[in-house]
Amino acid sequence: MNSQIIQPPLVAWANGAFSHAPVIRKTTRIQDLTAVFADGQAWRSCDPQLPVYTVEMLETPAGEGELWTGVTHLNPGKVGNEFFMTRGHFHARREQGEVYFGLRGQGLLLLQDEHGKARLETVCAGSVHIIPGFTAHRLINTGSEILSALAVWPTIAGHDYAALQGGFALRVQEENQQICVCEVQNG
């Protein structure tokens, strides 16, 4: 028998860096997050080129049964009094779930179903988050260092940002040096 031992990709658990594999890298900047933050004036006053988060993904063939593996690195910071966050999305194929693993930093995972019911989970090194299908999700960095989370999701899931044009039902802000969760008033 002629077996070959292959070195799979590696991830450094302390910082989420990939090695031994090709990586796709995408940085999202303040200018890319139109209408994400509540305080539009504070958003407009930010440097449009300021990086908010970077996603690094292992190159993977797309198709039924394949999985993306990626790490989101969300910088610390605020727009006005609202913490930096990812854009957040539903999956285009709503039934597809996702798993997040906290690697470093402190933050929250905002989850919201299609009826607008929202909840928050604490993200920290070692936390595991099962995101069910039909659930929008967004990372929020409430700490002073980079928040990194490893994610695994089906390549067929896609992203649906348009379904959240009205935003999430909760906002996470800092008030009097405390984390404050505010319900968004619609209408």
TrEMBL record:
Coiled coil spans: none
Any one GO CC term of the record: cytoplasm
GO biological process: gluconeogenesis; glycolytic process
Keywords: Gluconeogenesis, Glycolysis, Isomerase
Membrane-spanning ranges: none
A Pfam match: GPI
Pathway this chain belongs to: Carbohydrate degradation; glycolysis; D-glyceraldehyde 3-phosphate and glycerone phosphate from D-glucose: step 2/4
Entry keyword Isomerase: yes
CDD domains, per database record: cupin_PGI (cd02218)
Keyword check for Isomerase: yes
Domain (Glucose-6-phosphate isomerase prokaryote) ranges: 29-181
EC number(s) recorded for this UniProt protein: 5.3.1.9
Catalyzed reactions: alpha-D-glucose 6-phosphate = beta-D-fructose 6-phosphate
Molecular function GO labels: glucose-6-phosphate isomerase activity
Family assignment from sequence similarity: Belongs to the archaeal-type GPI family.
Protein name (database record): glucose-6-phosphate isomerase
Lineage: Bacteria, Pseudomonadati, Pseudomonadota, Gammaproteobacteria, Enterobacterales
